Amino acid sequence: MQNPIYVVDGARTPFLKSRNRPGPFAASDLATAAGKVLLARQPFAPSDLDEVILGCAAPSVDEVNIGRVAALRMGCGLKVPGWTVMRNCASGMQSIDSGIANIIAGRSHLVLAGGVDALSRAPLLFSDAMVVWLSNFYAARSVGQKAALLAKLKLSWLAPVIGIMKGLTDPVVGLLMGQTAENLAWRFGITREQMDAFAAASHARSIRTQKSGSFNAPHDGLSAEIAPLYDAKGVLYQADDGVREDSTAQNLAKLKPFFDRKYGRVTPGNSSQITDGGAWVILASEEMLKRHDLKPMGMIVDSNWAGLDPAQMGLGPVHAATPILARHGLGLNDLDAWEINEAFAAQVLACIEAWKSAAYCRDELGLGGALGELDPQKLNADGGAIALGHPVGASGTRIVLHLLHVLRRTGGKKGMAAICIGGGLGGAMLVEAL
Q: Which of 89, 121, 245, 289 is the most exposed place for a label (fewest CB within 10 A)?
């Protein structure tokens, strides 16, 4: 990027685990709550924004253009455009990239970009057979016609279709996202023990950071990352509630595989959690820094998107981040920190193995040999989606925001945020702390 794009500030909600029923907040509630806290601490008015861009993978039918809904509820005014983007798991990263593109083009100078999803509110649907029956029933004009249709109704048609399961199934290859993780575990020989150990470490790191207060308190000149929530009953939510101290490797080993019950290794314990949450960052041009005397936390140096086999979608971070490294003459460990979204333990471990593999780097990435082994101490320093949760639309924003927090806290300079994306895609952003 010829002109720097600055990240001024950011905030997110606590990530709240779905508990098989609608959670206390709609997606627009989450986006609005985090955005109001973030905008309230800025020296400019919400109406000074040029646009609001919100990523959301599963918007409710009553919040279709949720970016506009959130912009209005946050008090940005009628004249600030609000719009929504969707790139599955990277919707929140796409919002940032869309804001960057508009700033580079000169159409915008100050952008609020983020992501949100309330996956606990994913709908239960009727089957096609039940929809057809209902259509015929309501179209029937006589009592006799209705009675005849009632006689043909099959109780099996009343079984609900679980919307989130449909959403997490690739329509091209017909695989659940967890089944694509099983593919990677088989391809790279990743064991169940390795997955559970990785998952346990994610929880342990998140617990350590929660106890330190780094998520919830200002540090190193930065405002708090998490903005607490209050529900309609006045209940306070101030921490990611999927983090568990009893998620040890020993306890995780007791869970049964979910996606391949006979031969599989991927369990709910070594997978990301279905979660509700929202996150925002403020992007600004250099002109805006001067106009409003803003003190940025960092800047976006580069971004990249990549495509690959949908059945191997978990390797998306490898395909997206590697070209950025090449453009900047960097090795894996030349960076001070990495955030790779933990869709599945198998998926992150497979990315590490792919970079170590001379054959993969040569055949799939066009490199001369292996890129090397990523230092595990530089990866997901405070845990990831296995412990914190993965509100699909929000995760891309969260990892960029949190990476800048990690760099500032540790005195690091540059880092990479990368994410795998359902459908066979990957996204990555190179950031620099200031």
A: 245
